[in-house]
Write a structure and sequence with these properties.
- Two copies of one chain form a homodimer.
- The first copy, chain A, is α+β, with helices and mostly antiparallel strands.
- Chain A folds into two domains: 159 residues, 60s Ribosomal Protein L30, Chain: A (2-Layer Sandwich); 58 residues, CofE-like fold.
- Chain A is built from six helices and twelve strands.
- In chain A, the strands form four sheets. A five-stranded mixed sheet of chain A has the order 1-12-2-8-9. In chain A, strands 4-5-6 form a three-stranded antiparallel sheet. A two-stranded antiparallel ribbon of chain A has the order 3-7.
- In chain A, strand 4 and strand 5 form a beta hairpin.
- The longest helix of chain A has 16 residues.
- Strand 1 of chain A pairs antiparallel with strand 1 of chain B, so a sheet runs across the interface.
């Protein structure tokens, strides 16, 4: 089954109070089973998760990062790697200066799964279509250079697909088979977005229909402290 | 620009000495600029990176994992998270029992960038086409549940794209903009593979032509110890 990833072009600058679902539906013809990936940045703007910051004072940004962190894992120079209230471990608690007007920062959505559900529900209400929605953000990782997009919230699509109990091509039980499909879909969508091209949404068409169930990044992907070897 | 991800179906079971490029070309019509993603498993089989193991002795597998590790980061139960000679940090040093005949394990390729170059060169020699090749494997990550596919080797396609010096949609210089596109392409390809479906290769069509330069996962993605906050 072939997968298609379609950038949503020419979205306008999103402002507080804008309805992301409506902006998307004006620009793309969705089909049942599509997964719409929207970046955290436009979701945060629509939800007015913007906060003024003194752009000439580097400590002002840092103070917001500290406040948004429930625990700091590492510091080096200007970089803080910390855990957010939602359990994400990322740089600067997700508090972001890029693609935001000077003098403002964008905070992560309070509950990105809920943000995804709202967009999904609005799409269903307007079109009758069942689609998946993923809110993505750009995170670094230990051990590997370069950033990749991951899911911070989802609705109508699984975050993790558990293939345990399946068999490999030798008929032997698969051992390690929990795949974070929401993260892979977010990464795939980033390939058509591009930070500098300003495309903040994409449609992924053709994913396995079995993955189109109610999902939650927080419940399925955020690793509880007790089972985490690196926290 | 729309991206298409095409599974390469009905590849035969790969055996030591098989030519991966030829097997692929018999089953898929490539175009210039395509990126072919092949899983580590078939590359390791073709390169005869297989080793017999006593399937009834759990310590036998573990001994190979220890030997393939240059440094162990964490142990819990049967799980070892360690660093390989190539600098990858992953579970069990990449030594894998699944999708291999009982009584054997598959080791990682010695140099997966070189594996990718060989396949790329063979495709070019037979077709005259310039394509990218990525060798992928399935890794866990700290802090997030679920596995995702990442690149362990590449040729003819960038591992990391550096957008530094670019500007965001507000015309401000982008700060954090090194994107691990090879990892995102590997993740995208996994969406059409599926561990249990036994599809070990996919073609990603439509990526940004600017990314089609000579790349190296080892040089661009493996993070040197000195700059790694988590090793």
């Amino acid at each position: 089954m072939t997968l298609t990833i379609i950038p949503v072009e020419e979205l306008p600058e999103v402002k507080p109070g804008d309805r992301v679902a409506e902006l998307l539906l004006e620009r793309v013809e969705l089909r049942a089973g599509d997964v719409v990936v929207v970046t955290q940045k436009i979701v945060s703007k629509a939800e007015n998760r913007l906060e003024p910051v003194d752009a000439d004072d580097p400590l002002a940004h840092k103070a917001i990062v500290e406040r948004e962190s429930v625990r700091v894992l590492r510091r080096r120079g200007d970089l803080i790697v910390s855990e957010t209230a939602q359990g994400f471990v990322c740089a600067n608690a997700g508090v972001d200066l890029s693609n935001v007007e000077r003098g403002w920062v964008a905070l992560l959505p309070v509950d990105a799964d809920r943000s995804a559900r709202r967009i999904r529900d609005a799409i269903r209400a307007r079109t009758g279509l069942d689609v998946g929605v993923i809110v993505s953000d750009t995170f670094g990782r230990p051990w590997r250079r370069g950033l990749t997009d991951v899911a911070i919230g989802c609705a109508g699509v699984a975050a993790v697909v558990d293939l345990r109990g399946g068999v490999d091509t030798y008929g032997r039980e698969l051992l390690v088979t929990e795949v974070a499909v929401a993260d892979e879909i977010a990464a795939a969508a980033e390939l058509v977005m591009g930070k500098a091209r300003g495309i903040p949404a994409a449609v992924v068409r053709g994913i396995d229909p079995a993955w189109l169930r109610e999902g939650s990044v927080r419940a399925e992907i955020v690793r509880p402290h007790g089972e985490d070897l690196f926290r």
